[in-house]
Design brief:
GO terms for molecular function: transferase activity. The protein is an alpha/beta fold. Helices cover 44% and strands 9% of the residues. Helix 1 crosses helix 11. The structure holds 2-acetamido-2-deoxy-beta-D-glucopyranose (NAG).
Length: 492
């Protein structure tokens, strides 16, 4: 009995000691990591333009002016980023259709892209079940034929095998198939677009997105509609008063930065505005523990870690998946196909966007892996992700009816002012949209998708569910519906 108790006590002491040692090591390494992060943050602020390496501790937003500038430079020189003659066969716009009702939207979108004079390929990925077991009154073959006839040269239709989640009865059951867009490895760069969207203007394309720096594998706008007004206000406050970065966007896109030569890749990238950290990290100031948590797997150390884990998780900032600029690679696709898709097939409520945001491009994990790689490689470290401006590429049609979103959409990069702050304050949202927006995704709310309606239908701007409309914004919203419907009727 006495011996037993002694043993028990010894065991307890032993376990406590082990836990203490682990905790101590954890705390120490977290402390160390925080110190390092702080150190590099300081360096990035002091000599951001050329510290001799890529910024490893921030996520960058690319302003529209910078995208446009890269584009016109390449097109003027007719050279790609390796100095070779531009080969437009290496660029593709990609659509994906798993529902026959959406086929016509691709016709509308591709026609508009062709009218704009783009030389890129136009690729439609269509799930093979639409052809094998047509279950609607839509003549799939005929629709695909129409599409092909838009341009024998540029339009390509590729059948893909849909990926179904077993035991999933929702409308998203085959949404993991969308990840097959990452398989388009024939191309150096693809611009993936959901086709329930409007390309704004008469002749619009997004060619400029093919010319993002070649080391960038993935770029997309953020799902801004998930941010609360206070979150956005805080992001502005943070840039100006906490991080003390310049809030004037023009400072980031001045002449010298835009004319940065190819060999000044560090200067170009480091000069881009940072994403305000409060959008993806909580206020704990303990960045290290937070990014470590985001990557931890089941282990004793992660159990110990969870004892002092940050309480308020912050994972509001996510990439939208309706428009994505991708540099496809076989290696990445193999990981997606043999690892990520099988792993998420049986998980409940895990769809394409979750795989993209939780497994591939989680903002916290990006910081963690960037920094880890940087410590190993220093000069050879290359970042691979950018945030695109939502005002140009990420607008949801419903936002025109929701004044809570206006503040966000007034400026190009979150946390930064395009000009003098007051100027934009007076600008009307409809003018901003007309001037800048290129791609608007039709939301399901407050109205259904436009192709369910007739051109003659009047889309009323009633005030519903405390959505106050402003007249001008509503006119734009109505105009978008009508514009889409007339484009649709002309093609389909
Ligand atoms: C990926 O693309 C290649 C080339 O087009 C094709 O042969 C292959 O079947 C595709 N893989 C999947 C899983 O769809």
């Amino acid at each position: 009995m006495i011996l037993g108790r002694k043993k028990l006590r010894l065991t307890l002491v032993f376990i406590t000691a082990v836990v203490c040692v682990f905790t101590f090591v954890e705390v120490l390494s977290t402390f160390q990591l925080n110190k390092e992060i702080e150190h590099y943050k300081y360096i990035m602020k002091k000599k951001k333009n050329n510290p001799g390496f890529f910024d490893p501790i921030n996520i960058k937003q690319i302003p529209y002016a910078a995208i446009e500038n890269l584009h016109s430079k390449r097109v003027n020189e007719n050279k790609d980023s390796n100095g070779d003659v531009l080969d437009w066969n290496k660029f593709a716009y990609v659509n994906y259709v798993a529902d026959a009702e959406y086929l016509c939207n691709t016709n509308v979108m591709f026609k508009k892209l062709l009218d704009s004079g783009t030389k890129a390929k136009l690729v439609l990925l269509v799930t093979s079940d639409l052809l094998e077991e047509p279950n609607s009154d839509i003549d799939v073959e005929a629709k695909l034929q129409d599409l092909k006839e838009l341009s024998e040269n540029q339009v390509l239709i590729k059948q893909i095998e849909p990926i179904y989640k077993p035991k999933d009865g929702t409308e998203w059951k085959n949404s993991l198939s969308k990840l097959l867009v990452f398989n388009e490895t024939l191309y150096d760069r693809i611009v993936y677009m959901d086709n329930d969207a409007l390309l704004r203007g008469e002749t619009t394309n997004l060619d400029e997105l093919f010319f993002l720096p070649s080391y960038i594998d993935f770029a997309a706008p953020l799902t801004y509609w998930m941010f609360t007004s206070s979150k956005i206000a805080h992001a502005y406050h943070e840039v100006a008063n906490v991080e003390k970065w310049s809030t004037r966007l023009d400072k980031y896109i001045d002449e010298s930065f835009l004319s940065a030569k190819k060999e000044d890749a560090y200067q170009f990238y480091n000069g881009l505005p940072n994403l305000p950290p409060s959008l993806y990290l909580s206020e704990s100031k303990n960045i290290a523990s937070e990014i470590l948590e985001s990557t931890s797997t089941i282990s004793l150390s992660s159990t110990v870690k969870s004892l002092y884990a940050t309480k308020n998780k912050n994972d509001v900032a996510k990439f939208a998946s309706d428009l994505m600029v991708i540099k496809p690679s076989q290696e990445l696709f193999d990981t997606i196909y043999t690892d990520l898709i099988p792993r998420n097939l049986k998980r409940k409520e895990k769809y394409d966007m979750d795989v993209i945001n939780e497994e591939m491009y989680d903002l916290k994990k990006i910081i963690y892996y960037q920094f880890k790689l940087f410590k190993k490689l220093k000069k050879a470290f290359v970042p691979n992700v950018l945030v695109l401006p939502a005002r140009e590429y990420g607008l949801l049609s419903g936002s025109l009816r929701n004044p809570k979103h206006y503040d966000f959409l007034k400026h190009d990069c979150i946390g930064y002012y395009d000009g003098i702050e007051k100027d934009a304050k007076n600008e009307k949202i409809e003018d901003i949209v007309a001037k800048w927006n290129k791609y608007t995704h039709f939301s399901d709310y407050p109205m259904g998708k436009p192709w369910y309606y007739d051109k003659s239908d009047d889309f009323e701007c009633e005030i519903k569910d405390n959505l106050e409309d402003t007249e001008g914004a509503c006119k734009t919203w109505q105009h978008d519906f009508r514009a889409f419907i007339s484009e649709y009727e002309a093609v389909c």
